[in-house]
Amino acid sequence: MKEYVFKVVVLGDGNVGKTSLVLQYTEKKFSSSYVMTIGSNFAVKILSLPERGLKIKFQLWDLAGQPHFQFIRPPFYRGALLAILVFDITNRKSYDNIQLWVRETKNNVGDIPMILAGNKNDLIDQRVIPKSEGEALAAELNSRYFETSAKTGENLDEMMMHGIEEIIKRMNI
Length: 173
Known about the structure:
The protein has helices at 18-27, 74-77, 92-96, 98-109, 131-140, 156-171, and strands at residues 2-11, 40-49, 54-63, 82-88, 114-119, 144-147. It is of the alpha/beta class. It has one domain: 3-Layer(aba) Sandwich (Rossmann fold), CATH 3.40.50. A 6-stranded mixed beta sheet has the order 2-3-1-4-5-6, sandwiched between helices. It is globular and about 45 Å long.
């Protein structure tokens, strides 16, 4: 079985749920208390894809989203094969700032596959970003759109598997 390390950066404004998404995906845990990421958090999930003869060490780098951490983020991008751009469906500003995250990603690692994640879809009654808007932005970015919930885990496995498929396709594995 061939083994690979796939580095993924998880990006977006502060308090959109990046850390919670990573924690839910890697450990099936959720905490409703907010703890600001300083610099980056790092988590790993080992995946076996026996049908492809692959073992993947899926590294998720959750980068601090606050503007005052902008100067320390660049080194954390190095070697990233995928970017997951996260916004909060209950927060218009976090959606509007996705283009800034796209630019920062391209400036740091060039043209890598990106996935757009509209998080907190368990807060449907507080939604301000319609699904159609997320889908339109993803189409503009030539990426896929997933509505996720770090609380319930909804669509996380599907989104991450899509990311893995994008990396495999890009690397011709």
